[in-house]
Automatic annotation (TrEMBL):
Residues 29-457 form the Enolpyruvate transferase domain. It comes from Thermaerobacter composti. It is found in: Cytoplasm. This is 3-phosphoshikimate 1-carboxyvinyltransferase. Keywords: Amino-acid biosynthesis, Aromatic amino acid biosynthesis, Cytoplasm, Transferase. Residues 1-11 have a biased composition (Polar residues). Its EC number is 2.5.1.19. InterPro entries: Enolpyruvate_Tfrase_dom, Enolpyruvate_Tfrase_sf, EPSP_synthase, EPSP_synthase_CS, RNA3'P_cycl/enolpyr_Trfase_a/b. Gene3D superfamilies: Enolpyruvate transferase domain. Pathway: Metabolic intermediate biosynthesis; chorismate biosynthesis; chorismate from D-erythrose 4-phosphate and phosphoenolpyruvate: step 6/7.
């Protein structure tokens, strides 16, 4: 049955790190001989973009392989609150239907982006073009994260945005209108900044261009032509012309998330005797820095690019969202240390937590630099990694923009804290598989922000894992969102 998504989100309970939902403790014991095939959730970054562009274009668009976690559900709830009809006939299929962005209505209540920076920043770009006022808020973690990086250029385009700390932090109140295109030289390589401005630029007068210091994920640029909008790229500058009509495709097929795959691949690499296959993963070059680094570390990892016949969608190696897709296979391996920095960082940004875990088992000192952006993620990931991995016996030095991880160091099970950060929860769980004794991860249920099946999948591969809180994770899987009433039974909510 399709369920409409309510426009009213109740206030969410905050866990230890300010993240929605129950904390949950996962207990992980040492593993070996992990074996099997894991299907990862649809790509979270691509899911947000597909939903927003479909809602902006209008018509009826089916999103196949939509990400099942809480973050992607936050985007759907916000769109529903703007008057877009959103239904979810299956956990991984979403139908977006509406009149297009000109028919969006002023939301009756603040839009809740939950834990999702992509929801807040990209939606801010679109809302900046609307003639009504809207408030965007999120959980405690999101309200601590920097928003000035999108607010400042959107103001230069003509949007009125107010917020805490002069508009540097959420909640943000935006009232948009007739924007004019600008050029923005972004000091950070951020796909969220780039995408927010390009989305605003679609409805601005003239050209909007963004230059970034290194190439961040380019899903927005790849998807816009699918919606009828040409994108011009010149090295690190990307531009759109405003005022082009958006044309929605009937269907968007979303590949598996390489950032979710990274944790299972790492588990296979670390646990003796293991072999794990992750099929149908998006292997966009701006997302697979992690695979390149794994290879340089000596990991036995293979990528089988899908040919036309092998693609379930029949769309060939480059799928309908302009994204290449592959099957990934990883086996237990001896690792050596590497140095990681520069332009590689934006291409493995979300994989640094799991890379640090791998580095504890690599011969030599792994040096990660140019990664200060990690300090403004769901938590300060550099500090969190240094402190939590040390609890497991790892030797880690924290630097202003990175980490030194000395290996190989035997890990020993201990209690550690996910700090409300889904990627910390999953990275620590994989560390626990490689540690002696039992590792208890407090607040592990937040893995459902991006991968509600994470702990179930570890068990399927043969790992001995209890928790974190199966009831909460099951509810997330069933509805595609947190079990907090965000999805109402059909007919009871006004989308
Ligand atoms: C994302 C971009 C990255 C990444 C985040 C998702 C996106 O953030 O860390 O998980 O979907 O655009 P930044 O743009 O802040 O670097």
């Amino acid at each position: 049955m399709s369920e409409p998504i309510s426009s009213s989100l109740p206030t969410r309970a905050s866990g230890p790190g300010g993240v929605a939902g129950p904390g949950g403790v996962a207990r992980v014991r040492p593993a070996r001989d992990l074996a099997g095939t894991v299907r990862v959730p649809g790509d979270k970054s691509i899911s947000h973009r597909a939903a927003m562009l479909a809602a902006a274009a209008g018509g009826r668009v089916t999103l196949e392989g939509y990400a099942p976690g809480r973050d992607a559900a936050s985007t759907l709830a916000c769109l529903a609150a703007l008057g877009v009809a959103v239904t979810r006939p299956a956990a991984d299929r979403v139908v977006v239907e509406g009149p297009g962005i000109d028919g969006w209505q002023a939301p009756a209540a603040p839009l809740d982006a939950g834990n999702s920076g992509t929801t807040m920043r990209l939606l801010l770009g679109l809302l900046a073009t609307r003639p009504f006022a809207a408030t965007l808020t999120g959980d405690a973690s999101l309200c601590r994260r920097p928003m000035g990086r999108v607010v400042e250029p959107l103001r230069r385009m003509g949007a009125q945005i107010e917020g805490r700390d002069g508009g540097r932090r959420a909640p943000l109140r935006v009232r948009g209108g007739a924007l004019r295109g600008i050029h923005h030289d972004s000091p950070v390589a951020s796909a969220q900044v780039k995408s927010a401005l390009l989305l605003a630029g679609l409805f601005a007068e003239g050209r909007t261009s963004v230059r970034e210091p290194a190439l961040s994920r380019d899903h927005t640029e790849r998807m816009l032509p699918l919606f009828g909008v040409p994108v011009r790229r010149d090295d690190l500058t990307v531009a759109v012309e405003g005022g082009r009509p958006l044309r929605a495709p009937a269907r968007v097929s979303i590949p598996g998330d390489p950032s979710a795959a990274a944790f299972y691949l790492a588990a296979a690499v670390l646990c003796p005797g293991s072999r794990v296959v992750v099929p149908g993963v998006g292997v966009n070059p701006t997302r697979i820095g992690f695979l390149e680094v794994l290879e340089a570390m000596g990991a036995r990892i293979r990528m089988r690019i899908r040919d036309e016949a092998a693609s379930p969608a029949g769309d060939g190696p480059t799928g309908p969202v302009g994204e290449p897709v592959a099957d990934l296979i990883a086996e237990a391996s001896d690792l050596r240390a590497v140095a990681v920095g520069g332009e590689l960082i934006p291409r493995l940004l979300d994989e640094i937590p799991i890379l640090a875990v791998l580095a504890t088992q690599a011969r030599g000192t792994t040096r990660i630099r140019d990664a200060a952006e990690l300090r403004v993620k769901e938590t300060d990931r550099l500090r969190a990694l240094a402190e939590e991995l040390r609890r497991l016996g790892a030797r880690v030095d924290e630097h202003p923009d990175g980490l030194d991880v000395h290996g190989p160091t035997p890990l020993r099970g201990a209690a550690c804290d996910a700090r409300g950060d889904h990627r910390m929860a999953m990275a620590l769980a994989v560390a626990g598989l490689a540690a002696d004794g039992e590792t208890a991860i407090v607040g592990a249920a937040c893995a459902a922000v991006s991968d509600p099946d994470f702990f179930v999948n570890l068990r399927r591969l043969g790992a001995a894992v209890d928790g974190p809180d199966d009831a909460a994770a099951d509810a997330v899987r069933a509805t595609g969102t947190a079990a907090d009433g965000a999805i109402q039974p059909e007919g009871s909510a006004s989308p």
